[in-house]
Design goal:
Layout: H1 2-10, E1 16-17, H2 20-23, H3 27-34, E2 38-42, E3 47-58, H4 77-80, E4 86-91, E5 95-101, E6 110-120, H5 122-129, H6 140-143, H7 146-152, H8 157-160, E7 172-176, E8 184-187, E9 201-204
Antiparallel strand pairs: 1-7, 2-3, 2-7, 3-6, 3-9, 4-5, 5-6, 8-9
The chain binds a DNA duplex through strand 4, strand 5 and helix 7.
DNA sequence: TACATGATGCCCT
DNA sequence: GGGCATCATGTAG
């Protein structure tokens, strides 16, 4: 019964929570397969959900752009830990970025969530972003961009860093609702100054919520 | 203890 | 299309 109960909970957000094994692979593979999945935040009285449409892989080894490249520190420890945990990083004095750790315990690697398409809790997201939903002609400013996405979901380092994203009971998780991605596009990463030439950015082709310059 | 730097977004042209 | 705000973190001294 315990297993059945867990399964029921795992499907409670209209999808199946991705298991730890999903993240225990090369970040490039994880990145590609994360597209189309749903990021879920359970607030006290609201459910926030958005479909992931853009991610970036960070390899840790042989990847100068990765935070884990220079070795393990107190800040990036999550990237070196077990797969499936949230790594939240404060950047430029203003913004948080949400990542998920990949590869086994002891091996660094991760995926940065860059943009998503809002599904549920749009009013909550707008409030978190400091805008009026009714005043928006375009929903893209809500979750198109790493900092925006994190802000819309109320993600902070203090609250979410180190959180287990594979725990269905967690208030932050990622689920598979069965959506099939039409076409995946691979491009160069953006917003970084090192190893910019590596094709480690993955987007859903043609999706309106993909950030930055349109590619492909 | 001080300093340089950055996986960004906003606002102005 | 380009400049700027703003601060935690890491490294050097």
């Amino acid at each position: 019964m315990a297993a059945a109960g867990a399964r029921t909970r795992a499907k409670s957000a209209a999808g199946v929570t991705l298991p730890r094994e999903f993240y225990d692979r090369d970040p490039r593979r994880v990145s590609r397969e994360l597209l189309g999945k749903v990021l879920v935040r359970r607030e006290a009285k609201a459910l926030l959900a958005a479909r992931i449409v853009e991610v970036e892989a960070y390899l840790g080894k042989n990847d100068p752009a990765a935070h884990s490249f220079a070795g393990r520190t107190a800040r990036n420890a999550v990237l070196f830990g077990p797969p499936g945990f949230a790594y939240v990083y404060f950047i430029y004095g203003n913004h948080y970025c949400l990542n998920v750790s990949c590869l086994p315990d002891g091996v660094a690697g991760g995926v940065l969530f860059r943009a998503a398409e809002p599904l549920f809790g749009l009013a909550e997201m707008a409030r978190a972003r400091g805008v009026f939903l009714n005043g928006l002609h375009d929903l893209r400013p809500l979750t198109s961009g790493p900092g925006r996405l994190a802000e819309a979901f109320g993600i902070t380092r203090e609250r979410d860093n180190g959180k287990d994203l594979t725990d269905p009971d967690s208030d932050l998780s990622i689920v598979d609702d069965g959506y099939k991605v039409p076409r995946v596009l691979t491009t160069m990463r953006i917003g970084i100054t090192k190893a910019v030439e590596l094709p480690l950015r993955y987007v859903i082709a043609g999706n309106r919520f993909v950030s930055g310059p349109r590619a492909g």
